[in-house]
Amino acid sequence: MDKNGSSSRCPVCRAKFRGTRQCSRCGADLTELMILSVRAQRCRVNARKSLFALNFEKAHEFAAAAQKEHATETGRKLLLLTAWLKAEL
Ligand SMILES: [Zn+2]
To answer: What residue numbers bound the domain in which 50 lies?
Structure first.
């Protein structure tokens, strides 16, 4: 785990995950990571759609689900943003 609590690294050699099925450094199979990342991406798309629809409750739920699947720095910011909007409005 790095400082972002991110799982977007090769579990074998800790090389940065670049969205490929195979680690570019050690050749480990990253299919699982890939699936999680795609799922998280889909959640974030839904989170953004909810944001634009001013449904902050829903947006926060999607953002949280995305972080659970595959934590990223941008995802963390999205989660903070939706948490704030949800609390404020
Ligand atoms: Zn690797």
So the answer is: 1-89
